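Predict structure. Chain length: 172.
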Amino acid sequence: MMTPPTIAHNRIAGNLERLLNAVLATHDPSRFANQRPGVELGRIGEQFRPEPDVAVIDSDYLPDQRFVERAYLLAEVVSRTDKEPVPGTDETWIDVKRRLYLAHQPCEAVVMIEQDWIEVRVDLRTVQGWTSSKLTNLGDEFLLVGFGLRSRVAELYDGTPLRARVTSRRTP
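Prediction complete.
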């Protein structure tokens, strides 16, 4: 049994999945976002088999399918354990995941979202190679043109301690 992710981690992953599915339904119905799919990374992933928190994959799949060979967006919500070194290497777990995701040929975007502070790292594949940007404010525009997504970083953190909802508690 593994320790489950934090509530904030799950909330961020759910927010990203919801945002992507809302736009993909009209922008590109042949794809959808899914949490924690198995992704076959081929030879590059033989030693490590990361399971992305969110991936954009093809809409047609079999009822009992667990793994896909193509993921077009791979996203991780970065937790403290991701910052730990991989035994026998100089790399952290999150560095290994990012390296594997960037090497996945069908991948068009890699998104790394910090769960403990406001930071979103976006890598986008262009004809010249990968471009990277870092978003550090809730008001920053979170833009994934190839997926039809235009939102604010705040929407990724909605309902977390970093962007808590204002609620009034009812007393009985």
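Summary: The chain has one domain: 7-163.
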